[in-house]
Amino acid sequence: MALMQISEPGEAPRAARHRHAAGIDLGTTNSLVAAVIGERAVTLGDEQGNQLLPSVVRYLAGGSPRVGLGDQQFVHDDPHNTISSVKRFMGRGVEDIQKLGDRFPYEFVQAGQGMPRIRTVAGDFSPVEVSAEILKALKERAEQALGGGLEGVVITVPAYFDDAQRQATKDAAQLAGLNVLRLLNEPTAAAIAYGLDQGAEGIHAIYDLGGGTFDISILRFSKGVFEVLATAGDSALGGDDIDRVIAEWILEQADIGRDADQACLQQIVHHARQAKETLTERDEVEFTIERPDGSLWKGALSRPVFEDLVRPIIKRTLAPCKRVLRDADIGVNDICEVVMVGGSTRIPLVRDMVGAFFQRQPHVDIDPDKVVAIGAAIQADILVGNKPGDDMLLLDVIPLSLGIETMGGLVEKLIPRNTTIPVTRAQKFTTFKDGQTAMAIHVVQGERELVSDNRSLARFKLHGIPPMVAGAAHIQVTFQVDADGLLSVSAKELSTGVETGIVVKPSYGLSEEEIEHMLRDSLTHASDDINARRLREYQVEAERAINVLQVALDESGERLLSAEERARIDEALAALEAVQGGDDYLAIKEAMAHLDRATAEFAERRMNASIHDALTGHKVDEICPD
Amino acid sequence: MQPPLTKDYFSLFGLPIDFHIDDEELTARYREMQSAVHPDRYASAAAQEQRISLQMAARINEAYETLRHPMSRIRYMLELKGVDPRQADSSPDPAFLARQIEWRETLEEIRESGDPGHGLAALSEEAGACIATLLEKVAAELKDDARLSSALTHFLELQYYYRLLEEARDIEDMLEQGGPGRT
């Protein structure tokens, strides 16, 4: 932790002020925000004390969109402009959305390739922008509760989210003006909240069935280390599917055609959801439904019939459960506890079937709606630097294999699923034509052999390869997955050392220009233009860099730097300080880049020293084995 | 101090280059090192530190992943000696080849009979015993540069036994359909 203390000059590093941070559970049906207040992580409510914010955004013809509770009814009254379950569309193309099986009341507009937009009275919006509205509402709620701006947030995503879905989530946060400290997997967040609470050691299964996504993760807790052994799931399976089968049952029973109008269908889905919730406690639920012709249908759904309807859906969660055990290389007897997360685990049949599979009673005494946000808040508090002494370590994995397209439309896997992140893999390529200066790489994610059966993530075009005879150029392409589970790619020609340029074309994501454009659109105040915003960002980043460096120099400048090296750094530091307060962001950027180059070696040496200290700080016999 | 990004994986963990590794010690050191450099420790740090932290954490993960499994460890040790197992052209021992065919037939019989019975357990046990013997051989051969080619031959044999175990596991899973994983 020593390197991350940031302090004003002259201030003791340990006396760092408290920084506002929050954990956000951006859910399919509901979203929550939580923060550590005092010593406890709590979810933050609105003025009426509601903790759950329905993930519903209603666009109005004039004025800004409305988010949350009061708008849920408009899902029925104004279905085209009231968007719910937008999480299901994140990082997806139109054809994926059609495959979800639902009939959505929205009009999707596909502008060329890439991310579709939803047509509303206020304009066309991508799922990223809709999600950003939900995040803005949560941000506001947190800032009001904490009494100040947020320095950073942890946003949770389903563990089984692929790269495009994760990137879309991060883009939404950027649009909402949030600094994302980390994207955290939902079951892992739940494990943090649960594990820290119970002080549990051993191997745990986290079964997380939410509104639209399913995850199963196997984690080992041991002495402050949370290690994800394996994860599996289905990012298009959840409570929404249960609502749909009940709605279809109602349609059939009430003899209502599938061509009924949207408002009628939405109303039936609403009844279906209520029936599902009622049946967690009661044995029967009664309906009175108005048919399109105005006549009424009265009926009842008993729990046994309900269970027959939903059993196939719950059964679909058991195949990933089986696979995850195998991937983690354990058997059910190795698991000491099964933890249930997500609103859908309230259904008694889910608990029964999961209990039967794992051969033990699942743990249900924590609130399955709140636990993810609580875990995210705990992690956010640590990451923002409020707990300098905390030695909790979280080791998560990549949920789906990453590969590249090779000859014949086959996939060559580069990073297998359940590899601990961060991870880098280098792969060498060569040219097949004389004088070839460019090359295309298609990156896919998934477990199947054929490219067409996997998710297309992006096409990378390498250019600037020095012209040589065929096969002479050796291009090393490095794939890096960071701690958020996000992929980046870089390339270098090995014989000449030339860094080749890369153009990324995300298959379902937004390009940087599109995000920039959206950011510009979203800034309404005249004073708050994009340049002013950029300047502020550079000023803050420069200040941070200066502070971090000063602490680092005080701590180990003498030990790790020669006088000559020190002089070079001091000079670059002075140059940045000279422009940092000014209004020329390009000058700040340039001075920062200069300082970055001047200090790269020093920073690396410091990190080496910290590894060295970690290894020698304990004698071998002090290191506790598992 | 040599920078971690260029050290070999053993030195990275402060271990001698030897096939025999104390798993618990490796894991303990891995955790100590990740505690020092993991990106979570630098989530609020300057961009430069975040970048270096990411590189080092990835390197440590790669090293740990390579060293913790016997096969990737052997492969890596061969590579350190300049032997590329993918470009091996060593011809397998005829007796070994004959034994391979026999095992494959046994596996097929078990698959068709639909009853894992004792056959599968006995086969897995035998493969396990062969693996243990071969690992000891390879460990000794890797210490002696004159015996690298037999280390490579034994490495390739090991690959076969591990695949065999994997297949036996697949058949077991298939036969006990509906049952959750291995218990």
Explain how this protein is built.
The complex is a heterodimer of chains A (626) and B (183). Chain A is an alpha+beta fold. Chain A is built from 15 helices and 27 strands. In chain A, the strands form seven sheets. In chain A, strands 1, 2, 3, 4, 11 and 12 form a six-stranded mixed beta sheet that branches. A five-stranded mixed beta sheet of chain A has the order 18-13-14-15-19, with helices on both faces. In chain A, helix 4 links the parallel strand 11 and strand 12 (180-185). The radius of gyration of chain A is 26 Å and the shape is globular. The two termini of chain A are 23 Å apart. Chain B has seven helices and no strands. Chain B folds into two domains: 9-68, Orthogonal Bundle (Helix Hairpins), CATH 1.10.287; 87-175, HscB, C-terminal domain (Monooxygenase, Up-down Bundle), CATH 1.20.1280. The termini of chain B are far apart. Chains A and B meet through helix 9, helix 11, strand 19, helix 13 and helix 15 of A and helix 2 and helix 3 of B.
Would you summarize the structure shown here?
The complex is a heterodimer of chains A (626) and B (183). Chain A is of the alpha+beta class and 626 residues long. Chain A has 15 helices and 27 strands.
Low-confidence stretches of chain A: 1-15, 618-626
General form of chain B: globular
Number of domains of chain B: 2
Helix content of chain B: 55-70%
Q: For this structure, what is the CATH homologous superfamily of the largest domain in chain B?
A: HscB, C-terminal domain
Q: Largest interface, and how many residues on either side?
A: A-B, 66 and 47 residues
- What is the correct CATH architecture of the largest domain in chain A? 2-Layer Sandwich
Q: Might you state the CATH topology name of the largest domain in chain B? A: Monooxygenase
Low-confidence stretches of chain B: 178-183
Number of domains of chain A: 4
Distance, first to last CA of chain B: 47 Å
CATH class of the largest domain in chain B: Mainly Alpha
Name of the CATH architecture of the largest domain in chain B: Up-down Bundle
User: What are the secondary-structure elements of chain B, in order, as H or E?
Assistant: HHHHHHH
